[in-house]
Amino acid sequence: MVATAVTRKLDRLHEVLAATGGVVVAYSGGTDSTLVAAVANRALGDRALAITAVSPSLPPGEADEARRVAGRLGIAHRTVRTHEAERPEYLANGVDRCYHCKTELYDVLVRVAEESDFPVVVSGANLDDLGDFRPGLAAAAEHGVRHPLVEVAMSKSDVREAARELAIPVWDKPASACLASRIPFGVTIKVEELSKVGRAEQVLKGLGFRQCRVRAHGDVARIEVDLVDVPRLTEPGIRERAVQGLRDLGYRYVALDLEGFRSGSMNPEQP
């Protein structure tokens, strides 16, 4: 069989991870980190450990899903508590919020790695992430965290293709993000509001919308779904159930963003 470009990158990823001698994987359960954890498991066996951080910032159900997928793939997995919601710098919700969140995460994972005698902490950041607004990458650099997907030049499309090739069940999972990304920068983060937007998105997912965001603007909930799903959200029955579900959570107004879902739509404008 002729090796594809992605197959060659997968082989290289295996080599990179095997050469570490042991890794702790920052494992959110998304496609990127699951691919890294799966390949690390193949390359290192019991010298690879996937860690999912649990906190009020994590969308509902994600920890259970990560645990289920890790079990299915035979990946050694643990959850740990992180406490970014107790950091004033994180709660202040400045444009560097992600830096403070990732600082908390990597403080915890580096400690786990040291206790487990694993030399390296690795993330699921891919090549496309380098061109996005990602203050958390600075926190990773400060903690010596490596990004194997970047090292082998894997883009997001490469990751999905590789994950599909390895029969990883979340190969087409929609992108997710910290619940704080639903709150405008400069608005103080409250744990109750994180829980509220998480439950609001569960309402939409329960109506069949896989890719969705509920952006909170005070008592206004601004819904983003994929453009192809916008017409369905306005259908009688679906619309009423979405509106009622969000109003039951305490939102006074429910708005549909006609631009559709955009990852990082609340990020500051970049030059």
Could you explain how this protein is built, in words?
By secondary structure, the chain is α/β, with parallel strands linked by helices. The chain has 2 domains: 5-165, Rossmann fold; 179-256, no CATH class. 43% of the residues lie in helices and 13% in strands. It is built from 11 helices and 7 strands. The strands form 2 sheets. Strands 3-2-1-4 form a 4-stranded parallel β-sheet, with helices on both faces. Helix 1 packs across helix 2 and helix 5 runs parallel beside helix 6 (136-142). The mean pLDDT is 95.
Gist of the model:
The chain is an alpha/beta fold and about 270 residues long. The chain contains 11 helices and 7 strands.
The string of secondary-structure elements, in order, is HEHEHEHHEHHHHEEHHE
Poorly predicted regions: none
Largest sheet features: 4 strands, parallel
Radius of gyration: 19 Å
Task: Enumerate how many helices there are, as a single number.
Answer: 11
Can you tell me the CATH class of the largest domain? Alpha Beta
Q: How many strands appear in the DSSP assignment?
A: 7
How are the secondary structure elements laid out?
Blueprint: H1 5-18, E1 23-26, H2 31-44, E2 48-54, H3 62-73, E3 77-81, H4 88-91, H5 97-116, E4 120-122, H6 136-142, H7 148-151, H8 156-165, H9 191-206, E5 212-217, E6 220-225, H10 230-233, H11 238-248, E7 253-256
Parallel strand pairs: 1-2, 1-4, 2-3, 6-7
Antiparallel strand pairs: 5-6
Helix pairs in contact: 1-2, 2-8, 5-6
